[in-house]
TrEMBL record:
<dbReference type="Pfam" id="PF07833">
    <property type="entry name" value="Cu_amine_oxidN1"/>
</dbReference>
<feature type="signal peptide">
    <location>
        <begin position="1"/>
        <end position="24"/>
    </location>
</feature>
<dbReference type="InterPro" id="IPR042047">
    <property type="entry name" value="SleB_dom1"/>
</dbReference>
<dbReference type="InterPro" id="IPR036582">
    <property type="entry name" value="Mao_N_sf"/>
</dbReference>
<feature type="domain" description="Copper amine oxidase-like N-terminal">
    <location>
        <begin position="34"/>
        <end position="139"/>
    </location>
</feature>
<dbReference type="GO" id="GO:0016787">
    <property type="term" value="F:hydrolase activity"/>
</dbReference>
<protein>
    <submittedName>
        <fullName>Copper amine oxidase N-terminal domain-containing protein</fullName>
    </submittedName>
</protein>
<keyword id="KW-0732">Signal</keyword>
<dbReference type="InterPro" id="IPR012854">
    <property type="entry name" value="Cu_amine_oxidase-like_N"/>
</dbReference>
<dbReference type="InterPro" id="IPR011105">
    <property type="entry name" value="Cell_wall_hydrolase_SleB"/>
</dbReference>
<dbReference type="Pfam" id="PF07486">
    <property type="entry name" value="Hydrolase_2"/>
</dbReference>
<feature type="domain" description="Cell wall hydrolase SleB">
    <location>
        <begin position="175"/>
        <end position="268"/>
    </location>
</feature>
Amino acid sequence: MKNKRRIFACVIFAILLVSMNVCSALEVEVSMKINDNYVKSDKKNILIDDRVFVLARFVVEALNGKITWIDKTREIVIDYEGKNMKLTIGSDIAYINGKEYKLDLKPFIREGRTYIPLRFVSENLNCDVKWVQDTFTVDIRKEGLEIAKEKFEKRSYTDEDMLWIARIVEVGNTSLESRIAIANVVLNRVKSNKFPNSVYEVIFQGKQFPPAHKESFKSLKPSNISSIAAKKALEGINNIEECLFFNSRPFKSKSKDFYKKIDGEYFYK
């Protein structure tokens, strides 16, 4: 009996461990805007385990600060409005004007870019920072700040586009993969000359998206997983290539165009 309990406990622990690893592996692309202008960057700010990390150089320079990388000590040195700040990769201790400061998260490097925790920005760069969960956006405001236009980015989508897509992928208990796929059907149609050229018009056209024609659809509050799927698709994550159709049953007339099956849905080019 004791052995059975031990085995059962081990199984439960293994399941929990796998679940934790799946959750910890989930990352979401994050937009950043300063005084209502989206900041251009060559990589994406990211949300990891509900913690936001921003690209150090791009946020500091957009705020007209100076940032220096010291390779020998793996330090980031930020000079901003009379403050001298030093952060070290992999360390949760920073120094501000020589005084020790405890970070809630450690800076890290990925693909040649340095990431720092958003909280450090909000507490030390003298600006108001707001996290917008619905659109996964860091909204920074600083009075009197003038930003060079070349630091701005014109996004290819709007917050409204993201909301409509998040609503249309709100389908039962389907996986994130499936929701990203459906989101990409919408975006592929927007790009195709066979369909309307806006997210809104594609979703409300014809019968491909029946939920859009329900009275409650326009006021639907998407779940977090649906918002993540919409964000990922809009930021370029595509798992169905150029598919324009999907259905819960195979299309006999489009067998040559079949691409893949996800969570019981058949996707076609």
